[in-house]
Design a protein that fits this description.
Strand order of the largest sheet: 6-5-4-1-7
Strand content: over 45%
Shape: globular
Number of domains: 1
CATH architecture: Roll
Largest sheet: 5 strands, antiparallel
CATH topology: SH3 type barrels
Order of helices and strands: EEEEEEE
Number of strands: 7
């Protein structure tokens, strides 16, 4: 489960990881599981395209959906 890519199943209010300004993480926004806790709870990293973290959230598994990445290789 660590390093799985997940998507939020609902909007979530939080603060920016660096600036501490309020931000909204929207339903469908993707992040990476970086820690697994007891009781179906996960630490999820939300990063921009450069890999810079803008939110780090502890989220219940019922608020997450595991995503699948299918890579097609053409010869």
């Amino acid at each position: 489960m660590i390093l799985d890519i997940v998507a939020l199943t609902e909007d979530r209010q939080t603060t920016h990881f660096e600036t501490r300004e309020p931000i909204t993480l929207y339903k469908g926004q993707v992040g990476t599981i970086v820690m697994v806790y007891d009781n179906n709870v996960f630490e999820v990293d939300f990063s921009d395209n450069d890999g810079t973290t803008y939110a780090m959230e502890t989220i219940s598994g019922d608020q997450l959906m595991v995503t699948l990445l299918i890579v097609e290789v053409f010869a």
